[in-house]
Amino acid sequence: MTDTDPDPRGLIRESYNIEGITPEECRSIFLDWAISAPDGAVAPTIRTLLERHGGTAPGHPMTAILTDALENPPSARRRGGRRGRSEA
User: Fold this and answer.
1) What angle do CA 68, 73, 76 make, to 5 degrees?
2) CA-to-CA distance for 52 and 57, rounded, in angstroms?
């Protein structure tokens, strides 16, 4: 695996290899992957993962999770605490 690999720990790849995996399990794996993804690079990376895995497994729950994440990205929200307040 390289530094530019969209799935350096192989989480997404392995989810496609787990027979009988549920959407809930895929969502949990996706969140674990997303937490370690670099900021600002998630959408292009999801596209790469869909190109790599989604075409051969269109009915897989992870394909649905990745597609949903790409089509409905989370809205940016104010961070709480000290980081969320501007220095005025």
Assistant:
1) 160
2) 10
Please give the average pLDDT of every successive group of 10 residues along the chain, which has 88 residues: 78 97 98 85 92 96 97 71 61
The amino acid at 77: R
C-alpha 33/C-alpha 55 separation (Å) is: 20
Closest by Cα among 17, 44, 12 to 28 = 12
The two tokens of residue 4 are 């530019």
pLDDT on residue 1: 44
Alpha-carbon dihedral 5, 11, 16, 19, rounded to 10 degrees: 160
